[in-house]
Write a structure and sequence with these properties.
- This protein is mostly helical.
- It has two domains: about 160 residues, no CATH class; about 190 residues, Orthogonal Bundle (hpI Integrase, Chain A).
- Strands 1-2-3 form a three-stranded antiparallel sheet. The chain has a two-stranded antiparallel ribbon with strand order 4-5.
């Protein structure tokens, strides 16, 4: 029987499916239509070279946005290399003055371009983009250009000047990833909402406890956690109490680790019990640890999306009577170090668990806790 030849679109969908084994991708069918053959080939090459999953996920997201913007703004796919005029157009479309926009509707991103991107799900903001987001996407664009053996005007004086002037025109206060840290008392309130033995409560309880106690793991690391990464360790002996269960989590390569470095963190006691309870109830023997649970209590075979971890934190905050706008998944990470500082745990010991590489970054949580409770803040 003669087989039908694959179309270029079908071929890209298959190639993206093979990449998804290493790099979880959403909306693969849409990406297959958006990205070119060379884009997909570049992603496959980076997967084969062992680039970190978080970096690849961010790069793919930026590349998809750039392609969608180019099609919406010029009617053509992203050119390689990009001319300086297109780079300047990108800055003008994303960094603009809201006051000027009221006087001149043509200022900033054209309405039809914005609506096109919004319809595809690429654009949510109605105002100018954050300067850091624009710089990151330009950096991704520049990196992809270099990987193709090409050069473009990413370091031109005109582009640097345009970015500098645009940032001055649209000042934006720096916002924390999570307005408030999920410290021990806040976490206790969230865990109190997971009191039943339903699969959803068991899962959310395990997610919150594991993410927090493992050093404030990033939401992508929690969502991507697999059963094969868990190793049962010898119980921890405690005076006048039964031994505590213990396990290690092999994180592999992370955002801040070296290429061949296997990061390991440890769980002891209640988080291990919560994780074991979820795994047993969901009957998870291999593959993804945390998965979707539908309204009928069925556990999906697919891994949980990183965004869902953020949604769970906000949902449990709301159930606990807290403002969900003030908490996010990153609050678990900042909360772990804040709580460690409040309890007097030495910074190096906390960093062993959080796997922070920068003492300056980790110590900022300690300094804030010390300043807030110290004598200098209590002069009156």
């Amino acid at each position: 029987m003669r087989q039908t030849a694959l179309t270029p679109l079908d071929r890209r969908i298959l190639e993206l499916d093979t990449i998804a084994a290493v790099l979880p991708l959403e909306r693969r069918d849409e990406l297959a239509e958006l990205l070119t053959d060379q884009d997909v080939a570049t992603l496959r090459h980076l997967v084969n070279e062992g680039m970190g999953e978080n970096t690849l996920r961010a790069l793919t997201s930026d590349l998809a946005y750039l392609q969608a913007w180019s099609l919406a703004a010029t009617g053509k796919s992203l050119p390689w290399p990009a001319p300086e005029a297109l780079l300047l157009k990108f800055v003008a479309h994303h960094l603009w003055d809201p006051q000027k926009r009221q006087e001149d509707p043509l200022h900033g991103m054209p309405h039809e371009v914005a609506e096109n991107l919004r319809h595809q799900g690429f654009l949510k903001s109605t105002g100018p983009h954050a300067p850091d987001t624009v710089r990151r996407r330009l950096a991704t664009w520049s990196t992809l250009t270099k990987w193709r053996g090409l050069s473009a005007a990413f370091s031109s004086p005109a582009l640097k000047s345009a970015i500098r002037l645009a940032v001055r025109t649209t000042p934006r206060p720096r916002k924390r990833k999570s307005a408030k840290a999920v410290t021990g008392d806040v976490l206790a309130k969230m865990l109190a909402t997971c009191s039943s033995n339903s699969l959803r409560d068991l899962r959310d309880r395990a997610i919150l406890m594991v993410a927090f106690v493992s050093g404030g793991r990033r939401r992508s690391e929690i969502a991507g956690l697999r059963r094969e990464q868990l190793t049962v360790e010898s119980p921890i002996a405690v005076e006048d109490s039964p031994p505590l269960p213990s396990l290690s989590i092999h994180l592999g390569r992370t955002k801040t680790s070296g290429a061949d470095h296997d990061e390991v963190v440890y769980l002891t006691g209640r988080p291990v019990e919560a994780l074991n309870a979820w795994i047993a109830a969901a009957r998870i023997e291999t593959g993804s640890v945390f998965r979707k649970v539908d309204r009928w209590g069925n556990v999906s075979k697919r891994t949980l999306d990183p965004k869902s971890v953020n949604d769970i934190v906000k949902h449990r905050a709301a159930m606990a009577g807290l403002d969900p706008q003030e908490f996010s998944a990153h609050g678990l990470r900042s909360g772990y170090l804040t709580e460690a500082a409040n309890r007097g745990i030495p910074l190096p010991e906390a960093m062993e668990q959080s796997r922070h590489r920068s003492v300056q970054q980790a110590s900022s949580y300690y300094n804030s806790a010390t300043r807030r409770s110290g004598r200098a803040a209590r002069l009156l």
